[in-house]
Amino acid sequence: MSIFLWVLQFALAFHTLIGAVWKFSNTAEATMPTLGAIPQGVWMGLAVLEILLGLCLILPLFKRDMAKAAPIAAGLIAAEMLVFCALHLFSGSTEYGPMIYWLVVAALCGFIAYGRLVLKPIK
């Protein structure tokens, strides 16, 4: 189980870092019109936060005393995805494809957090 969690953590870290790069090069509205309510400064702040969270997902591999960083990072990424879902819903859009994507990412984050806190904690 531990190897599976590490694979998921690396995949999520890669996904999050790519998302951060995307945020630096595109506005929220250009990414998804329903996210246009996010101010550009907040969008850039999310990019910086995503870089930190992506690094926190793999940090425990190198520094075991930072074991709690991975589930916290996964939880924060899940929260971000759920905020995106809420913004999308409140915009009145009837397109559910992006929401399904964000919910899948949030579910994977939840699994990583649960796995690292309950199933196979990093020792």
UniProtKB/TrEMBL annotation:
GO cellular component: membrane
Subcellular location: Membrane
Pfam short name (any one): DoxX_2
Keywords carried by this UniProt record: Membrane, Transmembrane, Transmembrane helix
Membrane topology type: Multi-pass membrane protein
Predominant location category: membrane
Transmembrane helix recorded as keyword: yes
TM region positions: 43-62, 69-93, 99-119
InterPro entries according to UniProt: DoxX (IPR032808)
Top-level lineage group: Bacteria
Protein name per UniProt: DoxX family protein
